[in-house]
């Protein structure tokens, strides 16, 4: 009973603080509008597609890791022996996250972001390939 009262009190305190502090007006039709100030360029769109194609290859290699007990995953987010569902969910969320981060980054810095993202993925794919992980269909 005491734990429930503490949780209720904590929630009410947080809500009171949130509603009593001044805040900027928010466009509820598009609450992220101020973060997405610059539209995506054609180059950004191609880079997002390239990132997702490359990360799909990485995902398929990770599926091979899941199916073969001789290998283990080194990504700490997934853990050593993730399920295919965990892998799929991770890569879907990663693709969505990459898209939104791209939209938030100012246009003049997006090239660095795309280069880093793609090269890091290519390095992972090459490393997997070098230890014998292949994509099977």
How does this model look, in words?
It is built from 4 helices and no strands. It has 137 residues and is mainly alpha-helical. It has one domain. The longest helix has 26 residues. It is flat, with a radius of gyration of 21 Å. The termini are far apart. The model has no long low-confidence stretch (mean pLDDT 84).
Could you give a quick summary of the protein structure above?
The chain is built from 4 helices and no strands. By secondary structure, it is an all-alpha fold. The mean pLDDT is 84.
* Count of discrete structural domains: 1
The major sheet is characterized as: none
The number of helices is 4
Beta strands, count: 0
Q: Mind sketching the topology for me?
A:
Layout: H1 2-20, H2 42-67, H3 84-104, H4 110-130
Helix pairs in contact: 2-3, 2-4
Keywords:
137 residues, mainly alpha, flat, 64% helix
């Amino acid at each position: 009973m005491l734990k429930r009262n503490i949780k209720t009190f904590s929630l009410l305190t947080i809500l009171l603080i949130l509603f009593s502090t001044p805040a900027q007006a928010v466009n509820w039709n598009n609450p992220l509008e101020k973060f997405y100030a610059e539209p995506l360029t054609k180059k950004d769109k191609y880079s997002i597609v390239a990132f997702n194609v490359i990360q799909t290859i990485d995902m398929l290699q990770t599926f091979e890791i899941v199916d073969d007990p001789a290998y283990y995953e080194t990504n700490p987010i997934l853990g050593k022996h993730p399920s295919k569902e965990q892998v799929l969910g991770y890569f879907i969320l990663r693709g969505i996250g990459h898209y939104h981060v791209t939209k938030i980054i100012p246009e003049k810095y997006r090239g660095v972001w795309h280069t880093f993202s793609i090269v890091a993925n290519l390095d992972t794919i090459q490393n997997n390939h070098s230890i014998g992980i292949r994509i099977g269909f």
